[in-house]
Design a protein that fits this description.
The structure is a homodimer of 454-residue chains. With 454 residues, the first copy, chain A, is α+β, with helices and mostly antiparallel strands. The first copy, chain A, contains 15 helices and 18 strands. The interface between A and B is large, with 90 and 90 residues.
């Protein structure tokens, strides 16, 4: 543990918002991954960008690492303060500064939880589409370029960033971007910070683009005899020019756990959950019969379907349980979740390859199929070196296969600790440029150090 | 003129592809703007990334500026070699490397003209949506983050970049990005190069995301008693959650020139051109009556409308003539085209303010209204210092107003020479970070020097 003068910090924030207490530090030592917890030296709760600036200035002068903290719901160890130092917790910096329905925009502080934001925005018929599922903060989502099941239609967080306020190492505050729907002015710095996992600067505020809430919904749940039938269906639906609002794959193991955990009686087969949204009910009915036709042509065993928000909720409910049900089904074990994404035409091969690689493990395959993104969720014991080495070996093969398919090691969970070992392979010569940019902005390597780069 | 050993260049490319001829240099001394031409020292036509790399290496060793050249259709002097040196012309590097309909992707060399690309892609029912109008190359569009009338629905070039091959100053070749539909891996370098106007690196190849060609179209042309009625209609249509595929504004002056130049008899009023596309004709009819209702509520004087590709072509034809008709109407004068974009809710104010600022000039207002983007097209004589100072004064007021509205000095034309004087005002402290990134990548300032930065 570092020694430092806490009274200096308490001259920046009031007493209550600076803590070196054991329990607080433990709470900020881990995310939802298996990665080993590391205690920070101190946790702080700023309320304004100016306070963050002064904290970062202080930390940089003290050569103390600084890690930004949203909700701690990351899956790759992204916010674990592996070199200790200061954790800046954004949970008290959670104001919705201004809703601008007239511009389809909202200004928020980084600590706002996106689900809370969407509750507020619903009053104006608007929403912020990326939906990672957990209670993530906007700041965390920006750091990670988060996405989720709606990204097949709406894109990832990066597609919704108009303007950011960023505190740079050293404490300088800058604003990047503007509020126009488009711009060709200057380097796209907002895109550089988005997805940089707090390694280049700390995002404190954002102007987000919003989408109008769809008027009507249609949902289909289909089950298939084999993985290939389900994943080929995904491909056929995307190729047909249909524009799903979500397109999720679950393998039979996932359905089996859902049945056990939730007392359901779903057919334990590879399953697709699909959602479509639109203006006219007639239009949705036309799309529905087209979707049915494609599912049947690909050998669907059963199709459950419906139109309207209630039907959508009924058909989709199970997807929201997935993560928690798997966890509860394996109390005492930790999750390692692979997150590769590949071009759509390689999705079937990718999923079948992954299934084979983990056939001797407690593994669950599900993912945002419409984006070519598959989560291979393995439950095991990181303390059991031999078993964990087996899990890591599977990760390695699966990532290498995704890269061979010109895909990515991580579709949405980010690099953090878990994927840094693949950065060289994935980015080749361009990794050097990333390192040069990191060194330019953060020469003392104080922002979220010890991860991201291999 | 620099002295250099041309034989060294001819050892990289064959004779025919290296030229110091006067006429060739003149052709590469200007774009379509009023900005003063400057002759390059030499023009080269590479065929491969490796050749570009060797050319850039040679130029950097010789401390010779390097400017990439697409079609020369820029409007802000973006490719004018203001410090002379080498112009790399991409017109012979125009291969469509691979169409991948199964992934909605295409791999191209940077010199491909986007209209040619779209002709090829149509065979697979696909297209690359950004449409700047001129015969732009993909490389130029990437450099400029080009957009156009379809961007209100489909976004700008940056939204279609999956992977780039880039030659860095010094000649290093890197690939950035991947072919998955989404990724949270590493810094978004592709976004950094897109819109950097060839000042950070030279893009030689790209993997582009594609969209499916719409099945059906609906178009409406409405005329209105005053600018405000037209621009308020834009706002109302966007707010209603309708998703136009294009939404263009033309002021009465533009219509008058079109009538004169093309022998048409259109009502010389503020005009909106709108396009909608979709799957079901019934859905489009529903949208059409909604659109009509909104236009009428905003005082529309006339509405012409139709469904299907022919009707769309008929109603839209005039938009494609605009630029050329204005030019032909003022032979001997040069265009200065302002290109501000503002949040939608400020669009009416922005257009009315602009109209007032140029009321004593030969000025035409038109633009991508659905994006809050307005072009104020002034025809005048840059040699007449007093008159041109008047034009520049209008530019200044209009840009300052756009920035006051938290918009941008350029929605799609880029910075080039013309907008560099606004960079400080627009980007504030973040301009310093742009300069640091420029200095990191191009310490000798050899890539497209003398513009972009103030």
């Amino acid at each position: 543990m570092r020694s430092f003068d806490c009274s200096e910090l308490k001259s920046i924030l009031d007493d209550r918002r600076v803590s070196t207490g054991e329990s607080v530090r433990v709470l900020h030592s881990h995310d939802e991954s298996f990665h080993a917890p590391v205690l920070p030296d101190v946790v702080v709760w700023p309320h304004t960008t100016e306070e963050v600036s002064r904290l970062v200035l202080w930390a940089c002068r003290s050569k103390m690492p600084v890690t930004a903290w949203g909700a701690g719901t990351s899956l790759e160890g992204n916010p674990i303060p592996v070199q200790g130092g200061m954790v800046i917790d954004f949970n008290e910096m959670n104001k919705i500064i201004a809703v601008r329905p007239e511009d389809f925009q909202v200004d928020v502080q980084a600590g706002v939880i996106y689900k809370e934001l969407n509750k507020t925005l619903a009053h104006d018929g608007l929403f912020f589409p990326p939906d990672p599922g957990a209670a993530a903060t906007i700041g965390g989502m920006i750091g990670n370029n988060a996405s989720g099941s709606r990204s097949v239609r709406y894109g990832a967080t990066k597609d919704y960033i108009m303007r950011l306020t960023v505190v740079l190492p050293g404490g300088d505050m800058i604003a990047v971007g503007n509020r126009a729907r488009k711009s060709s002015s200057g380097y796209n710095l907002a895109a550089l910070f988005t997805g940089s996992e707090g390694t280049l600067g700390i995002v404190t505020e954002a102007t987000l683009k919003l989408a109008g809430l769809p008027v009507n919904f249609m949902a289909v749940r289909g089950t298939f005899p084999a993985i290939r039938n389900a994943t080929d269906t995904v491909y056929a639906i995307m190729r047909a020019g249909l524009l799903p609002a979500a397109m999720e794959f679950l393998d039979a193991n996932v359905v089996q756990v859902l049945n056990a955990d939730k007392g359901l009686a779903l057919e334990e087969n590879p399953t697709l959950l699909m959602e479509f949204s639109g203006y006219s009910e007639q239009g949705l009915r036309e799309e529905m019969s087209f979707v049915e036709e494609i599912c049947q042509a690909n050998g669907a065993l059963s199709l459950d379907k419906g139109i309207g928000p209630e039907e959508r909720a009924r058909l989709w409910e199970i997807r929201h349980y997935t993560y928690e049900s798997i966890k509860r089904y394996h109390i005492g074990l930790s999750p390692l979740i692979m997150d590769v994404a590949v071009p759509l035409s390689r999705y079937t091969e990718m999923v079948e390859f992954s299934k084979k690689e983990v056939q001797d493990l407690k593994a669950y395959l599900f993912g945002h199929a419409g984006d070519g993104n598959i989560h291979v969720h393995v439950m095991d014991d990181p303390q059991d070196k031999k078993r964990w080495a087996r899990v890591e070996k599977a990760t390695h093969s699966i990532v290498m296969k995704a890269l061979e398919f010109e895909g990515t090691s991580t579709g949405e969970h980010g690099i953090g600790i878990g994927k840094s070992r693949f950065m060289r392979q994935e980015h080749g010569e361009s990794l050097l440029l990333m390192k040069r940019i990191k060194a330019l902005l953060d020469p003392d390597n104080l922002l979220n150090p010890g991860k991201f780069f291999p």
